[in-house]
Amino acid sequence: MKKFLLWGSGVVLLTICLIGGWSFRTKTTTSQPTAAKVQTHHKKKTTKPLTLTELKRHDTLAYSSIIYYAIKYGKIQRWQELSDFSLGWQVESYSSKSKYLVWPDQNIKDEAKQLAPNWFKLQGSTVTYHSFVVLSFQDDMTAKVSLTTIINRINREHAEAKVRQMPTRLTVIRHH
C-alpha cells in the first residue's frame, strides 16, 4: 500500500508539474504585450544637411546661410541689426555679382535706406563680411569665412531647417 501511495503521489506531483508548466508557458506566450512593448516611437524630424553644391545652385539659400552665420556666429556686432527674422531681409546685388548689400526688412523702401548697410562679398567659396563703423572715420570692419565653414557650423548646430525657411522672407533686387 505504501508503494501505491508513493507511486500515486509521484504521478499526481508529475501531473501537477506538467499542467503547471504547460499553463505557465501558455500564459507567457499568449499574454498581451506590456506597455513597454506597445510604446510608439515618434520619428525624429530630420532635415537634410546643407551642402556646398546646393548653395551654389540656389542663390537665396546661399544668401540665407551667409546672413544666418553673420547674425548667429559672426564677430561683427553691427550684423545684429539684421536679427529680426520676422521682418526678413532685402539683398541688393550689383552687376559685379560679387558685392551684396543686406538690409533689414524684406520690404524696406529706398527712403528708409539712410545708413550704409552691412554687406558681403562672395568670391568663389570665400565670404567677406563688411560693416560700416557708425560715427567713425575708420575703414569698414571685415571678417572672412569660407562657405564650407558656414555650412559645417549650421549643420553642426542643427540650424539647417531654420536656414531653409529664410528664403521666404528674403527679397533679392538685382541692379545691372
Topology:
Elements: H1 2-30, H2 35-38, H3 52-57, H4 59-72, E1 89-93, E2 99-104, E3 118-123, E4 126-131, E5 141-146, H5 147-156, H6 160-165, E6 170-174
Parallel strand pairs: 1-6
Antiparallel strand pairs: 1-2, 2-3, 3-4, 4-5
Helix pairs in contact: 4-5
Task: Characterize the structure shown.
The protein is 39% helix and 19% strand. It is an alpha+beta fold and 176 residues long. Strands 5-4-3-2-1-6 form a 6-stranded mixed sheet. The termini are far apart. The mean pLDDT is 82.
Keywords:
single chain, 176 residues, alpha+beta, globular
Q: Helical percent range?
A: 25-40%
Instruction: Let me know the largest β-sheet.
Output: 6 strands, mixed
Distance between the termini: 117 Å
Whole-number radius of gyration? Answer: 34 Å
Low-confidence parts: none
Query: How would you spell out the order of helices and strands?
Result: HHHHEEEEEHHE
Q: Tell me the name of the CATH class of the domain at 52-174.
A: Alpha Beta
